[in-house]
């Protein structure tokens, strides 16, 4: 998909995955937004990332 | 009434997770596919809210690059570019409504074909042993409904079913899957013995 995504997977999926916001959401059976970053921030189209 | 030879079923069940991985690039699990169908409306709502559904690939690339630099700085290490699974293997995209729906429909059709091949009429009943134990009225339907509830609750708690844990997870020697498989096999044998005892008494 996107080259930058590899950085996130290296730091979260392959190391401290228990800190990953996407992992936590899935563990809590909440829907995982496509734009949710592993650090808990959400990419916003046409606005500030939150 | 005739059944397919056991080895044909074993080969088909063994080949399915492998073929699924080769084609879809994701671990195979029926309950996961069913759960995906259930959760899709929630995912669509979240995607609409965040604007993901409206964004172009270029917009997403730019946003992600900016967020990546913000998080990790400009000295981004050179690593691969695809989402990966627990063992670092690249994963495919999650199945959409059409693909997951097609699988569920095909699963029901496959069951129907097998039932017809075995010389049994289409219907919700599970055979002579089931009818001897529970009849074929409202009580039997209630038993099936209760069984479905237990399967749904069990697969949710265990995060997988007999395909996800028993076929895919066990083949990958995942400790949780091996334990889950032992547990539900022991439980299934115990319940079968109880039902057999009920029929015999």
Note the topology.
The complex is a heterodimer of chains A (50) and B (201).
Chain A: H1 5-13, H2 21-27
Chain B: H1 6-24, H2 30-50, H3 57-72, H4 97-117, H5 128-134, H6 138-158, H7 162-171, H8 175-200
Short account of what is shown:
The complex is a heterodimer of chains A (50) and B (201). Chain A has 50 residues and is mostly helical. Chain A has helices at 5-13, 21-27.
Structure description:
The complex is a heterodimer of chains A (50) and B (201). With 50 residues, chain A is mainly α. Chain A has one domain. Chain A has two helices and no strands.
Q: Note the beta-strand portion of chain A.
A: under 5%
Question: How many individual β-strands of chain B?
Answer: 0
SS field, number of helical segments of chain B: 8
Q: Which class of secondary structure composition applies to the elements of chain B?
A: mainly alpha
Provide key terms for this protein.
heterodimer, A: 50 residues, mainly alpha, 2 helices, 32% helix, flat, B: 201 residues, 8 helices, elongated
């Amino acid at each position: 998909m996107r080259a930058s995504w590899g950085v996130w997977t290296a730091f979260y999926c392959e190391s401290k995955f228990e800190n990953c916001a996407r992992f936590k959401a899935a563990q809590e059976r909440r829907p995982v937004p496509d734009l949710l970053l592993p650090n808990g921030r959400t990419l916003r189209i046409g606005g500030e990332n939150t | 009434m005739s059944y397919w030879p056991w080895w044909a079923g074993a080969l088909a069940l063994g080949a399915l997770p492998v073929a699924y991985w080769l084609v879809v690039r994701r671990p195979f699990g029926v309950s996961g596919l069913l759960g995906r169908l259930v959760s899709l409306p929630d995912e669509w709502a979240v995607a609409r809210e965040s604007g993901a559904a409206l964004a172009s690939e270029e917009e997403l690339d730019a946003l992600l690059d900016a967020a990546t630099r913000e998080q990790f700085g400009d000295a981004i290490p050179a690593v691969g570019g695809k989402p990966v699974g627990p063992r670092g293997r690249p994963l495919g995209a999650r199945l959409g409504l059409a693909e997951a729906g097609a699988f569920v429909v095909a699963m029901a059709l496959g069951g129907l074909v097998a039932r017809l091949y075995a010389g049994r009429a289409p219907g919700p009943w599970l055979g002579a042993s089931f009818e001897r134990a529970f009849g074929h009225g409202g009580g039997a339907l209630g038993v099936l409904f209760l069984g479905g509830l237990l399967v749904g609750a069990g697969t949710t708690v265990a995060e997988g079913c007999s395909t996800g844990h028993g076929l895919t997870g066990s083949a990958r020697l995942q400790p949780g899957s091996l334990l889950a498989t032992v547990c539900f096999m022991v439980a299934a044998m115990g319940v079968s013995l109880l039902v057999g005892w009920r029929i015999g008494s």
